Amino acid sequence: MMEQQTSYKLLNKIDSPDDLRKLPAEDLPEVCTELREKIIDELSRNPGHFGSSLGVVELTVALHYAFNTPYDCIVWDVGHQAYGHKILTGRRDRFYTNRKLNGIRPFPSPEESEYDTFTCGHASNSISAALGMAVAAARKGEENRHVVAVIGDGSMSGGLAFEGLNNASSTPNNLLIILNDNNIAIDRSVGGMKQYLLNLHTSVGYNRLRKAIAGKLYKWGILNDERSKSLLRFNNSLKSMLMQQQNIFEGMNIRYFGPVDGHDVLTLTKVLREIKDMKGPKLLHIHTQKGRGFKQAEEDPTIWHAPGMFDKDTGERIISDTTGMPPLFQEVFGKTLVELARQNDKIVGVTPAMPTGCSMNLLMQEMPDRAFDVGIAEGHAVTFSGGMAKDGLLPFCNIYSSFMQRAYDNVIHDVAIQKLNVVLCLDRAGLVGEDGPTHHGVFDLAYMRSIPNLTIASPYNEHELRRLMYTAQLPDMGPFVIRYPRGRGVLTDWHCPLEPVEVGKGRVLKEGTDIAVITIGPIGNIAKEAIQKAEKILSCSIAHYDLRFLKPLDEAMLHQIGKKFHRILTIEDGVLKGGMGSAILEFMADNQYTPMVKRLGIEDKFIQHGPVKDLYALCHIDEAGILHALTNMTNL
């Protein structure tokens, strides 16, 4: 049922950007006010990414007003900036379904709207994608088609962004890059790029004068394209000398404009119209404030990146009472890391822009000289960790599972080949819920399993997480991967003695005679409940094994299972192709065991967004799905 829509004088009349472009420019500030109110109202009741979208309201309106979208293409980076974009492009009345099962997708997706030109969930891909689209438009003869990349929210620190810039500087194109500089990603932005952007100043008036002079020189036949490139390089050098600053973008032959106030919609619109038809790659640098227009979000952008439900009038966050509930896995990780670091002075922490999300901030608070936020740069985080490990330190490198995909080569080339003592902690493993397919951490078991020299483990509960972390920091363990899910564990009494776990050793959680169930990680707790029900309903005896380590496998335990059982059920919260179930099948085949093996996990498709419990049911790895599989197996 559609929610009752709040009455907005202008916004309710905008069903597409065409409607927006029919308005006089003087109405744009009011459109921005109403759009910001709409985002605040909706997200107060239906949680999502709050501060980032508030920060780009004026930019969003200006872009759709100045450009002929969707023919002109806007490529968003870090798609949590794009809520205003969704509302203006035909999804206003459905926006209340954002992030809900079967509702609007959490991030821009071409499958949802022609205005969503490219998938964006991870950071730093917009320049490369937009450059490709700009080159394609030129090759098709669409000379009047504009392509705009909107990058920011900390994502300029990603290596892919610089690869795109480098290519844009040498490939003929008319790409416009908009750098949304808000000095923050989720936590505060870090690194030299942040400071550089804060200090960068180049006059818009100067650029207008240069454009006018160049136009005259072209008209008089004095200037052509080849002479223009040489003159541009000379001009950039001269300007850097006179202004006593070097502009990294113009050093790459990318025209620079700005910085411009990103909350002045009329000026933004005017500037965009002035520069959009200029030939060659261009960059417009705007300053914005994350959380703009909502006092609490302006003051604490980290908390208000995704604050959950809140009272839109008072700004009070609506926080559920968690008294007596188990802790979040990331909380256990953060507190255990501090505990281990007190005991082992070689331990350091590394995270790519997620200190609060993964609880690395706890180590940063107690031992700031031993924790490193490297910005949105996952590949660098891994290689940086490898460098420290090479010279005797012991890094715990915490990266969300789906983000670790971006550092795959670094794991192989810079850690595994050298057998370096790096602990790779994969937070948000498995199905993560409302963030959807770009964020589900379902590939890690499969993509890590093929890499030599890795130890790969997943804890059944919080005690196991602590013990695996303790084991990983023992001498000569080599590369050690620990993956665990987003959300709460199962133990309220989570603090336990730090004891070593025998590497490659699984556990028998329950003996049985008829069916063997093999699980890895916290999903074993769901299987435990299903097994108890199945035994009562089906009057059968079911054994339950916690594999614990995907690599090395507990071959002794698997030999016992292969000899004893003719029916085996494997359960994992990862992809079936190449995952834990595949490893069990390979072992059974290699050792001439011939049981009937049923595998439960993620099928060969991308899973949509929605509450984790609903997604588990969708994938048949919830209690009901496991019970159904056991029922079918008993009938064989």
What does this structure look like?
This protein is an alpha/beta fold and about 625 residues long. It has 3 domains: about 10-295, Thiamin diphosphate (ThDP)-binding fold, Pyr/PP domains (Rossmann fold), CATH 3.40.50.970; about 325-480, Rossmann fold, CATH 3.40.50; about 505-635, Rossmann fold. Helices cover about 40% and strands about 15% of the residues. The protein is built from 24 helices and 17 strands. The strands form 3 sheets. A 7-stranded mixed sheet has the order 7-6-8-9-11-10-15, sandwiched between helices. It has a 5-stranded parallel sheet with strand order 1-2-3-5-4, sandwiched between helices. It has a 5-stranded mixed sheet with strand order 12-14-13-16-17, sandwiched between helices. α7 (about 160-170) links the parallel β2 (about 145-150) and β3 (about 175-180). α2 crosses α4, α6 (about 125-140) runs parallel beside α7 (about 160-170) and α15 packs parallel to α17. The chain is globular, with a radius of gyration of 27 Å. The two termini are about 45 Å apart. About 50% of the residues are buried. The model is unreliable at about 185-190 and about 190-200 (pLDDT under 50).
